[in-house]
Design goal:
about 40% helix, eight-stranded parallel β-sheet, about 350 residues, two-stranded antiparallel sheet, TIM Barrel, alpha/beta, 13 helices, globular
Length: about 350
């Protein structure tokens, strides 16, 4: 995948996207809650871990492939759910799905998508469906039935959002999601953003996790697990995987970065189900650190939005290509021939 030579990394794509988007839309995508401490901490936390390379290993034949919940992926990187992608590019989730399919990765479609489940299914991308649980149980059932019918392979329950965080960057700008943006997947045709938010339930409990796990044919993945206590409960209540996530710093602005929470969760899970992680991952080396700290794969969101903004499908594909190239190079320089070779010995804390 070719890309302009001046766009050498994710930071370059973000800078170009910031030039292309209006100030309010960029702030919505880039911002976090309150003082944005957790937003910044997500990136900083990965930098506090350093890699420990081994030498004199034959790395002439390296693969980035991995397997996750029975599916082989081209790299240990999954695309996180992102709302309102048609604000970034007119082709939105359709272009994103095509790029991810081309890269051999996996897409998580947001409940707040601006494309339908059917449209995304037509791209052929391997796909999970992210759900904010509706207040109406019948509507939730209809959504899940439709996701199964359109080939979604897992249900991702976002569990860190009983209510929305306070996004002060948006408030300062007086910005709201435009009423012209329509949410497509809440069971009643197009819904406005305000209408979509009003659908969410603040009463979701472990009993609901058990119900979804029992009623749906899909594996249930919990996105937003952040403590050992909840990690153990996730296993007990039937989750098939967990995602260590603070919602990109957009919810509770008083938590550690995801890289700090990951080891605690992974230790509590003890290999019983896969652990994924998102938040602040901007380099292929961050993905390798995540594997060393106990993750089966990492998830990225904003970097793909920047690529989509810059050049639609081609831009998103370029960012995925960049991650895969960095993961492959990092494996070779670590002395590993595949993601399976990475252990906790591959990282160490940087001196304070």
């Amino acid at each position: 995948m070719l890309r302009p030579m001046e766009l050498l990394n994710v930071a370059d794509f973000e800078a170009r996207a910031a030039e292309l988007l209006d100030a309010g839309t960029y702030a919505y995508y880039a911002g976090g809650a309150n003082d944005e401490r957790t937003l910044r901490e997500n990136v900083a936390a990965w930098d506090r871990w350093a890699l420990r390379p081994r030498i004199l290993v034959d790395v002439s034949d390296v693969t980035t492939e991995t397997t996750l919940l029975g599916r082989t992926l081209a790299m240990p990187l999954v695309v996180a759910p992102m709302a309102y992608q048609r604000m970034a590019h007119p082709d939105g989730e359709i272009a994103m799905g095509r790029a991810i399919a081309e890269a051999g990765s996996l897409m998580t479609l947001s409940s707040l998508a601006t494309a339908t489940r059917a449209e995304v299914a037509e791209t052929g991308v391997p796909r999970w469906y992210q759900l904010y649980v509706p207040k109406d149980a019948g509507k939730a059932r209809a959504i899940l039935d439709d996701a199964v019918a359109h080939g979604f392979e897992a249900l991702v329950l976002t569990v860190d959002t009983p209510v929305l965080g306070r996004r002060e960057r948006d408030l300062r700008l007086g910005w709201h999601v435009p009423t012209s943006v329509r949410v497509q997947n809440l069971g009643e045709g197009e819904v406005s953003p305000l209408g979509a938010f009003s659908e969410m339930s603040a009463a979701v409990t472990w009993r609901d996790v058990e119900k979804f796990a029992a009623d749906t044919k899909l594996p249930v993945i919990l996105k937003g697990v952040y403590t050992a206590e909840d990690a153990r409960l996730a296993v007990e209540h039937g989750a098939s995987a967990v995602i260590v996530s603070n919602h990109g710093g957009r919810q509770l602005d008083a938590v550690v970065g995801s890289a700090e929470a990951l080891p605690e969760v992974a230790e509590a899970i003890a290999g019983r189900i896969p652990v994924l992680v998102d938040g602040g991952i901007r380099r292929g080396t961050d993905v390798l650190k995540a594997l060393a700290l106990g993750a089966s794969a990492a998830m990225v969101g904003r970097p793909l939005l920047w690529g989509l903004t810059v050049d639609g499908q081609a831009g998103a594909a370029a960012v995925l290509d960049l991650f895969r190239a960095e993961i492959s190079l990092g494996l070779q320089l670590l002395g590993c021939t595949s993601p399976r070779d990475i252990t906790r010995a591959a990282v160490t804390r940087r001196p304070a």
